[in-house]
Each structure stands twice: as structure tokens, then as C-alpha cells.
Amino acid sequence: MSEHIDFTALTAPDREPIARLLHRALVHWYESRLGQGSRFGGSHEPFTLFPDVYEALDPGECVTARTASGEIVGVCFSHERETHVSVGIVATAPDAGGRGIAKKMMSLVLDKAKRLGKPARLVSSLLNLDSFSLYTRLGFVPGAMYQDLLITVPETGLAAPAPAGIAHVRDAVLADVPRISDFEQTQQGIRREKDFAFFIRNEVGAWRVLVSEAADGSVNGFLAMSVHPSFTMIGPGVAIDEETALALLWRALDGLRGQTLVFLAPCAASALVRTAYSWGARNVELHVAQSTAPVAGAKGIVFPTFMPETA
Ligand SMILES: CC(C)(COP(=O)(O)OP(=O)(O)OC[C@H]1O[C@@H](n2cnc3c(N)ncnc32)[C@H](O)[C@@H]1OP(=O)(O)O)[C@@H](O)C(=O)NCCC(=O)NCCS
């Protein structure tokens, strides 16, 4: 890299430039490689939700790359959790790409994870060899594969009948946070109480969390979602089996009538995926969970998301 770049934390005035950078990097990458830049819309404004949410959730953890004149040319969000460090969206300005900026930002996050003695986890596009390669070069190991399903929920709700399990699904309250976290830890070997409490408090962004309970009252699934108009996406969530996952998903979609949104579903959950197709969902991308230390024996049906990024 010829020009000197500083790697620093995010400050309040960076909100707008970071939103512009995220929008520009995504539009440029997806348009130049896949002809799909329009999928990110024509304005950077919805992307201000990313710095707003990440800074509210974990102030000071974002890494930015700046030129000597102060221009932000790279951003990498990350957040420490009980069991791991989650890495959120990573982006480099198109005209600053290929010069090691993303690699340096990621290395700083990985150094932090190492100091904490925790693995790093993220979700990476399988259509984006630049980011896939960046992560695998840094020691991330690809794991479960997910399909990004785009669905428009009719104004009148899904035509398909509600799965039987929806009787056991309700909106979560703060008191559910430890139980949801225990369930995720049992299934996936990760814990992140702070995220669930943040969603349920609902102070920055707009969130909903559903929880499903078995006949004995134990948690057998949960599904969070961002319902903010700037970013509507289902996830994160985990269910004990596909039936429970479908009940949570149906309830989530029913609350999003008239909206078009994306959710990620495990490719291996073939019954769930085929049911989603029958509801009108279409594949638009593939993602893979990556970790520097994959959890052995992870189980359950996982719905990852992109903000706050989870896998
Ligand atoms: C993905 C992105 C962040 C990469 O940023 P960047 O600053 O250009 O990346 P870097 O120059 O730091 O590093 C790229 C690394 O991947 C390697 N790489 C890229 N393509 C590769 C390939 N096909 N095979 C192997 N390695 C590859 C490069 O060689 C480099 O590693 P090296 O320095 O060890 O040689 C950037 O393209 C971007 O912002 N894209 C749009 C936003 C996005 O999609 N973000 C990822 C989703 S979260």
C-alpha cells in the first residue's frame, strides 16, 4: 500500500461516511461482478443503521481505515460475546481495494480474539470469492452452508396453513433472555445474551424476538428479526428441529405481511427449504458460516443474519 492508512475506532461524525462507504462498496462489488448492484438501492441512508446499531450494541469495537486526509476507505464491525468474537460487515472503498486494507482490519479483529482467547465467527457469501478468500487466508474454516431466500409476504398473509407448532410460539420478553441463551449454547455452543437483551429492549433499530416452548415449558427455538424499514431481515434464530423452525418462520413472516425480505436457511434443512419454496421463496445468494475454531457437534436449525452478523 503506497498511501499511509490509519486504523482507528469509529466516532460519531463517521456515521454518514460509513453508510456511504458500505453502500458504495456493496453496489460496486455486486454490480461489477454479478450485475446486481441495484439490489442495495439508490441511497446510502438505510446503511446508517449499521453504525447506529453496532455502536449502540458495542461502542468502540468497529475498526475503520482512514487516509491521511481523514477519508474513510475501510470499515470492519466486530463484537465480543461470551464465547466468541463475531465479525460483522467488512468493506473497502472500491478505489482502495486489493491493497490489504480489509486484511489489516480483519487482522486487528483476529488479534483481539486471540488476546481474549476466543474464536472469531462470521457469515461469508459464497458468490464473493474476494471475501471468502480473505477469510480463509486468515484461518477461517467454512462450515454450514445457507441459502438466502427472498420472499414477498402477501398482504393477506401466507396462503399456506399455519404449521401446528405455532401454538407454542410467542413474543419473547426480557426474562426469556437467559433461557434463549442457554438453548443456543446447548445447540450451537455459543452464547450472546447481550444481543437478545438488546433486541428485546428495542431502543435502537426495530426488533422482534419470538420464542417457542416445548410441552414441558423448555425453550425449543427462538427467532429474532430486524423489522426496521432500512433493514428487514429474519434472524438470528435456532430451532431444535425443522418443524419448530417452520413454526417460528411462519409466525415471523405472518408479522411481515406486504413486505419483501430475505432470510437465510440451512441448505441441509431440505424440508424447511422446500416448504419455503412452496410459500414463494426464491434463492438469491448462498452464504457459509466460517469460524477460526468451529464448534464440534453443533446441532439445530440455524437462521443467521447480517446485522448484527451471526453464524
Ligand atoms: C471483500 C472486500 C472487503 C476485500 O477488500 P480488500 O481491501 O480489497 O481486500 P485485501 O486487499 O485486504 O485482501 C484480499 C485478500 O484476498 C486474497 N484473494 C482475493 N481473491 C482471491 C482468490 N480468488 N483466491 C485467493 N485469494 C484471493 C488476496 O490475495 C488478498 O490476500 P493477500 O493480501 O494475502 O494476497 C472488498 O472487495 C469489498 O468491500 N467488497 C464489497 C463488500 C463485501 O462484499 N464485503 C464482504 C461481505 S461481509
UniProtKB/TrEMBL annotation:
Residues 5-163 form the N-acetyltransferase domain. It is an enzyme of class 2 (transferase). The keyword Acyltransferase applies. It comes from the Bacteria. The keyword Transferase applies. InterPro entries: Acyl_CoA_acyltransferase (IPR016181), GNAT_dom (IPR000182). Pfam families: Acetyltransf_1 (PF00583). GO terms for molecular function: acyltransferase activity. Its EC number is 2.3.1.-. PROSITE patterns: GNAT (PS51186). Gene3D superfamilies: 3.40.630.30. Keywords: Acyltransferase, Transferase. This is GNAT family N-acetyltransferase. It comes from Prosthecobacter fluviatilis.
